[in-house]
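Q: How would the structure tokens look for this protein?
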Amino acid sequence: MTFHWYDWAGYLGVLLVLLAYFLLQARKLHGNKLGYQLMNIFGAFGVLLSLTFGSFNWSAFLLEVAWIAIGIYGIARGVKLRRLER
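A: Here is the predicted structure in token form.
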């Protein structure tokens, strides 16, 4: 089996998303913090690369696009809440 760069991007992306979720459950990360959101965004982006350049799957693609959008929303909401607290 030959691994291409986009395969590795997909594996790294899956690892990041799973690690973020594990650290959230272990209470090492908080869901409203930037680190958690960035791990999810970059993880989903890695999977998107794998889907785009490798074997495309619409349902997985839409899931990852939604995952990125939710992460961006979380970051924007966090920024807004921090501004209101000041």
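The mean pLDDT is 96.

DSSP finds three helices and no strands in the chain.

Upvote if useful.
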